[in-house]
Design a protein that fits this description.
Length: 149
């Protein structure tokens, strides 16, 4: 299980004295525990991936803000933490792969215009959750629905 791998990697980071990895893994464990307390049951790998994705998104958002503020010290640390998080996430789909998946789902659902965006986004997110970031999916869906078929 992914949670067990995170625990083992935390032990390894503690032994090695890797402060950044240790803090990132502790942050993840805390996030997992919070979800488990909320749900009242232990979460599976899919739940752990959701927590990982949420943390990665927060780190990406922080990177954008730190870049705007020209805080190189924070940029470097956040990028290092993000790299650690991304190592545990499955490989993300490229824009071309997202576009191909969205086109396929568009034909299945019959979505053709902006009015069908909600229906299409729901179907696409269900299929691509964890494999692509929501903002990338939204960008592709909006672009495909805006262009006449």
């Amino acid at each position: 299980m992914l949670a067990e791998k995170l625990d083992q990697d935390l032990k390894d980071a503690l032994r090695a004295g890797d402060e950044v990895r240790k803090s990132v893994l502790r942050l993840l464990r805390a996030g997992i525990r919070n979800v488990e307390k909320t749900k009242g049951v232990a979460i599976d790998d899919a739940g752990v991936l959701v927590v990982l994705g949420k943390e990665a998104k927060e780190h990406r958002d922080s990177l954008e803000e730190f870049t705007k503020a020209k805080r190189q010290d924070l940029i470097d640390r956040t990028q290092l933490e993000l790299d650690i998080l991304l190592a545990y996430l499955p490989q993300q789909l490229s824009k071309e792969e997202i576009t191909a998946a969205v086109r396929e789902i568009m034909t299945q659902t019959g979505a053709t215009g902006a009015a069908d965006k909600g229906k299409l986004m729901g179907a696409v997110m269900a299929q691509l959750r964890g494999k692509a970031e929501g903002r990338d999916i939204n960008e592709v869906v909006s672009g495909l629905l805006a262009t006449p078929q």
